Amino acid sequence: MRFIHTADWQLGMTRYFLNGEAQPRYSAARRDVVSGMGTLARDAGAEFVVVAGDVFEDNQLAPRDVSQSLEAMRAIDIPVYLLPGNHDPLDAASVYTSALFTAERPDNVTVLDRAGVHEVRPGLQIVAAPWRSKKPTSDLMSEVLEDLPADGVTRIVVGHGGIDIFEPDKDKPSLIRMAALEAAIERDAVHYIALGDKHSRTQVGSTGRIWYSGSPEVTNYDDIEPDPGHVLVVDIDEDDPRLPVRVEAQHVGRWRFVTLCRTVDSSRDVADLDINLDLMPDKERTVVRMGLNGSLTVTDKAALDACLEKYARLFAALAPWDKQTDIAVIPADGEFDDLGIGGFAAAAVNELVSTARSDGEDADDARAALALLLRLVDKGVA
Q1: Which contacts of 115-119 are long-range, i.e. CB under 8 A and separated by 24 or more positions?
Q2: Domains in the chain with CATH codes
Q3: d(C-alpha 211, C-alpha 64), whole Å
Q4: 97, 143, 210, 227: which could join 200 in a potential S-S bond, CB 3.0 to 4.6 Å?
Q5: CB–CB of 191/243 below 8 Å?
Q6: Start and end of every Calcineurin-like phosphoesterase domain (predicted)?
Q7: What are 282-308's pLDDT values in tens digits?
Q8: pTM (2 d.p.)
Q9: Is 276 helix (H, G, I), strand (E, B) or coil?
């Protein structure tokens, strides 16, 4: 038996740092990766798809987002089981009980809206732990696992949330207890546990039967989310009494959110940064968070600004990482001697240089004015 484990689609997600026209393309990519699971499922011979929570970004979505998302699920064309998670819980305002969702839900889509066992076919069950609020007061997974028998039925558990072995706050009531998962596997009551909440593909424990699939399309930078963009194709050999499991990751995401940290202390460093950014592929689907440190002359800082402005137009977003950025700008000796100006203007430039070299409160404004001056005379263009 083969199925696809995925999670954290978060359809309707927005990212504030995307350039204006990049946001619609990103939203479309998130839907496209869902509809594309139909081709993957057919090629793999998958029997169904389980989505382990956070199908939608939240319960308050525009009708267009809901309709387009359901149409993407329809394209999968095999049974799709949706688990409500912390972003889209089964509360009073749930998207899953809305008139629009109910009217347009494709026949191949089932919401796992009951805690406990859902029959897939004789000998195969899905055990679900749906969220009914954003802050559960208990371990929902342990509750559905507690009374499951070891009776020869193949069981896939679908849950959402953080596991206690990964979380620093061990007293958080909603944490999934790893001991309960392993105990259910050990006694042969369940055979695979499909998890959502972590957006990076992660194997949990050493059984090979507990996985976070991660989000199929990236949602955060690579220093936070190191391995996104996958779905998991899961095989359970029902002809073997041990029901061995094999998990294969398929990369389906097309976007990248990259963190880039560099030291820039010279014009050569600025030129190297330009080359590195130029070589990055798929700029329209790439977001770069930039952390820069160093000390530059006004001329080199103007060249850096011009470089960043150029690539900000090419990438889906080029965002400064303020916490990791610290560039000192210090005018070099003779840097403004050949501007071809004299008299009062030259005296004003000298005063700006003196102010820029100081630690006074006007130093940053003076540096900005000098950089603008260089760009106006075409010295700082990258």
Answers
A1: 115/140, 115/143, 115/144, 116/144, 117/148, 117/155, 118/81
A2: 2-251 (3.60.21.10), 256-380 (no CATH)
A3: 32
A4: 227
A5: yes
A6: 1-170
A7: 999 999 999 999 988 888 888 999 999
A8: 0.87
A9: helix
The DSSP secondary structure of 199-258, one letter per residue, reads: SS-EE-SSSS-EEE---SS--S-TTT-SS-SEEEEEEE-TTSTT--EEEEEEE----EEE
Nearest to 294 by CA among 318, 277, 270, 259: 270
Nearest residue to 88 via CA among 47, 119, 52:
52
- Amino acid 223 reads D
Cβ distance 46 to 87 under 8 Å? no
Beta-carbon contacts of 49 under 8 Å, excluding residues fewer than 6 positions away, are: 3, 4, 6, 37, 41, 76, 78, 79, 80, 81
Give the three-class secondary structure for 305: helix
Residues 157-198 pLDDT 10s: 999 999 999 887 778 888 999 999 999 999 999 999 999 999
Pairing of strands 202-203, 210-212: antiparallel
Instruction: Determine contact, residues 337/39, Cβ cutoff 8 Å.
Output: no
Pairing of strands 116-121, 80-82: unpaired
